[in-house]
Amino acid sequence: MLKDITLGQYYRAESVIHRLDPRLKLVGSLVFMVSLFLFNNPICYLTAAVFLVIVIALSKIPVKFMLRGMKGIVFLLLITVLYHVLFTTGTVIVEFWIIHITYEGILNALMMFARLFMLIVGSSILTLTTTPTKLTDGLESLFKPLKIFRVPVHEMAMMMSIALRFIPILMEETDRIMKAQIARGADLGSKNIFVRVKGLVPILVPLFVSAFRRAGDLALAMEARCYNGGEGRTKMKVMHLRLRDFISMYILALYLGAIIVLGIFFKGLPAIVCEDMQCGLEFLIAFFKGLKG
Amino acid sequence: MDKMVFADKISYDYKAYDENGELKGTVRALDGVSLDIKHGDFITILGANGSGKSTLAKQINALLCPTEGTIFVDGKDTAEEENLLEIRQSAGMVFQNPDNQIIATVVEEDVGFGPENLGVPTKEIWERVEESLKTVGMYEYRKSSPMRLSGGQKQRVSIAGVLAMHPKCIILDEPTAMLDPQGRKEVIRAARALNDVEKITIILITHYMEEAIYSDRIFVMDEGKIVMQGTPKEIFSRPDELTKHRLTLPMATQVAYRLKEEGIPLPDGILNRKELARELIKIKEAK
What we know:
The complex is a heterodimer.
Chain A (H helix, E strand, L loop, with lengths): L15 H4 L2 H17 L3 H18 L3 H6 L5 H14 L4 E5 L2 E4 H27 L2 H11 L10 H31 L9 H32 L18 H23 L3 H24 L1
Antiparallel strand pairs in A: 1-2
Helix pairs in contact in A: 2-6, 2-7, 2-10, 3-6, 3-10, 5-6, 7-8, 8-9
Chain B lengths: L2 E15 L5 E16 L3 E6 L5 H8 L7 E6 L2 E2 L6 H7 E4 L12 H12 L3 H14 L15 H13 L5 E5 L7 H17 L3 E6 L10 E6 L2 E6 L1 H5 L2 H6 L6 H11 L11 H14 L1
Parallel strand pairs in B: 3-8, 3-9, 6-7, 7-8
Antiparallel strand pairs in B: 1-2, 1-4, 4-5, 9-10
Helix pairs in contact in B: 3-4, 3-5, 4-5, 5-6
């Protein structure tokens, strides 16, 4: 039951994106996010969308699977869209009571929607195509320079990977404790929220006790296998940048360059789009009036 | 010194705390234990719960240092700080709970953890991992997640993890206590194979008498002391003493003992069913 939950929603597939160096994917996701926030311009969003679609196609992740993860943020998206539609000043289309809907508002809302949507899809590609272990390795390697400032990078990465290893074990344990407490008459399914929160105490306490015991055991086992920090350690899996990583780097740079050039060159585009929308609407209204007449 | 383990009257005190966390006194877990283990031996340390056998195991791996007396592992004193890593490398340890000693999320990475700590070059780590996993028969599972393995398989991975450090001695601290009979068989078979083929000294700590019958020598512990020692045959022919130390005999030995009491002329120290059957057939044919 609880055991089936996969962490970090990794999707197993054989693709170029899966095989890319995790460091590159981390940097790539960051570049993509930054590129979304550089300019608020329809043509930039269009470029980003094309880029994203190509990456998704290359990653061989079913679109359905990707969208399933988006369910949780539908509400957030809706609020953002409504906010922008209702509270942007500009040329008014409809006006009643205190609500003004403007052309700029509609355009802004659409662009915000695109920005947030792509932001989340873009970052989920990272976790969908990279195993948590590789992600940790990538982070450790990227943050290595921070060692000069005495940031315990290796220790933090080790903690992260151990946490990842123990999440399923602790979940199983939670399951077992829950069953044990239910067998003793604990009421975990109550509709009353206070009763339910109170019911968590007899689950959390043994869970913590056992987690501490496990931590002690694990520390002993690590010590028995000569672990004593990051000093003098070698790596079993060394990350090498391959040709595909360099090609991807080049593509990434091209993409960022394209976004910047387009953003500067088509600076006036949002205003033009608004005017076009206005013209279009007026044309439509005139057209329908003509039909009636 | 060509001894694997040499302990000279070691004692160990645990500090005992009361409910308020104040020092109440000490509990003597080991009391004047002397050990003498040769290279290549298969040793079993038997004892009931609380007999001090796990504390003894931790002394050999230098996880604990004796309060009194000295212990030499492969000729090195465990009390010396600079010997620690060498001792832990030459005397590897496998613990009771397989879940709490597997560090990585992939089998091969876990086996590589020890060599990584020792600073072994990357290429050699891979060679060692492959070799150790093949030795314990887990090579085809090298890419699996430890979560998907059975208890016996997990323990074999743990053994491989120790093996990849190229130890001279492996201490198995109740490796089968949490396993089903099938898993127990797997682990004991792997340990025996290591002793036979790789000539690695095995120190098996257990309270299952059945697992002790293959060893060269058995030490029986009770209340922090070594109370009996000898070959399996010698030990198992003293059932009354064993019962006194809270241990139960293997079924076949028990049956043989009872039959002997009833007047059937069986020899002392029968260890397994096969042997019992053979002896009974002999007696029948003699009639």
